[in-house]
Specification:
This protein has about 140 residues and is of the alpha+beta class. It is about 45% helix and about 25% strand. The protein contains 3 helices and 5 strands. A 5-stranded mixed beta sheet has the order 1-4-5-3-2, with no helix packed on it. Helix 1 runs antiparallel to helix 2 and helix 2 packs antiparallel against helix 3. About 15% of the residues are buried.
């Protein structure tokens, strides 16, 4: 069996493993193995095929990780993704460490100020972003 056939068998195995596990990264590795198969069809040596597959794996997995990281950080303040953004909460008082406990959706949340330069005051605030289990809030304009 030639090198290209082995690469294509590896592609098939990785796709099958991805279908059973639901891990998108295995699909990226299958694309890298397909890069190795293309290098084998081009007549490159086995070491060049491995380097090509490795570079393809680095680009696909690294690229997908970068996209996921960027999407995660950009969606924290996006009202189309996080429906809490734009809702109002009432801040009874601020604590000394710059946090506040606010009631929102029937429970207490930890809130922090969106802008540290604005003086902290109690009253109505708007949710600007959600960071984990903390609300980032800004005062409503009077």
């Amino acid at each position: 069996m030639d090198d290209a056939t082995l690469w294509w068998v590896l592609v098939g195995l990785l796709v099958a493993a991805e279908l059973t596990s639901g891990t998108f990264f295995l699909l990226m590795l299958a694309l890298a193995a397909a890069g190795g198969a293309v290098a084998a069809h081009a007549g490159w040596t086995f070491s060049a095929q491995l380097v090509t597959a490795g570079l393809c794996a680095l680009l696909t997995v690294g690229g997908w990780s970068w996209v996921r990281l960027r999407r995660r950080t950009s969606s924290q303040g996006n009202p189309d993704v996080v429906l809490d953004i734009g809702q109002t909460v009432d801040v009874p008082h601020w604590q000394a460490d710059g946090t506040a406990r606010v009631r929102y959706r029937g429970t207490e949340w930890l809130a922090i100020a969106a802008d540290a330069t604005v003086p902290l005051r109690s009253g109505p605030h708007r949710i600007r972003a959600v960071q984990g289990n903390r609300l980032v809030i800004e005062p409503l304009q009077a």
